[in-house]
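Please decode residue identities from the backbone states below.
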């Protein structure tokens, strides 16, 4: 029976070695590998609910196909009660599902993908491995690495265009200090890459780009522009609109 040591399973086992494992060894190997990419949790907390619904974990940070863009996955392990009790906190629970969301951190804003991302060159970026999961590190949600990078590039180009006076914002009636601030001033006050909460692509006409960027849990920017085929960097920003909101907790 071929059995892998923990170090071999996590670091150096080849495809051939892994495929040769019998069922029980294969199961142990993959489960061990799965645990190895997760950061340890400090405590289990049901939050505002009396009964635990899910436990959040994160993977260790790793690199992407873009030099300078790091990623981690936020994983939720979901639980449900197996029977009803008078006190929800006393009901026995079992896990039943997992859910994951990609989060990104920009060490250095890339402008193109690595030449051959399939080799693993991007995944093992040393600067991503050293990022850690500090609460001070700014992570933001996005569907994938390209959405994260292009949305951030759109934000950067749009801010520069607004600051230089080349781009005027769409009329904004919903900024918090509408009587004291212009739409452009409101954009420049919050629009920083380090404040990004999430980036999401939005619908646009053919050959156009559209991204919604949430900033600092209070501002949403909708940015539209153009880019040549295959290019991440926008060739022109055509519009930017700002919306501000207050989150009530």
């Amino acid at each position: 029976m071929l059995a892998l040591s923990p170090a071999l399973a996590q670091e150096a086992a080849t495809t051939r070695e892994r495929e040769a494992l019998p069922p029980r060894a294969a199961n142990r190997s993959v489960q061990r590998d799965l645990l190895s990419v997760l950061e340890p949790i400090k405590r289990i907390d049901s939050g505002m609910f009396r009964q635990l619904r899910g436990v959040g974990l994160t993977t260790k940070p790793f690199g992407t196909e873009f030099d300078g863009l790091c990623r981690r996955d936020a994983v939720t392990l979901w639980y449900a009660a197996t029977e009803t009790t008078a006190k929800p906190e006393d009901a026995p629970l079992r896990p039943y599902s997992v859910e994951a969301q990609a989060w990104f951190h920009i060490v250095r804003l890339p402008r193109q993908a690595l030449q051959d991302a399939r080799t693993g060159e991007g995944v093992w970026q040393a600067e991503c491995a050293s990022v850690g999961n500090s609460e001070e590190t700014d992570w933001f949600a996005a569907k994938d690495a390209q959405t994260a990078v292009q949305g951030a590039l759109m934000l950067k180009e749009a801010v520069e265009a607004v600051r230089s006076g080349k781009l005027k914002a769409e009329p904004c009636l919903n900024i918090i200090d509408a009587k004291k601030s212009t739409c452009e001033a409101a954009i420049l006050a919050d629009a920083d890459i380090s404040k990004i909460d999430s980036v999401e692509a939005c619908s646009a006409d053919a050959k156009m780009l559209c991204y919604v960027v949430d900033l600092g849990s209070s501002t949403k920017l909708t940015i539209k522009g153009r880019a040549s085929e295959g290019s991440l960097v926008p060739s022109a920003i055509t519009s930017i609109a700002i919306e501000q909101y207050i989150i009530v907790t």
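Observation: The longest strand covers residues 93-106.
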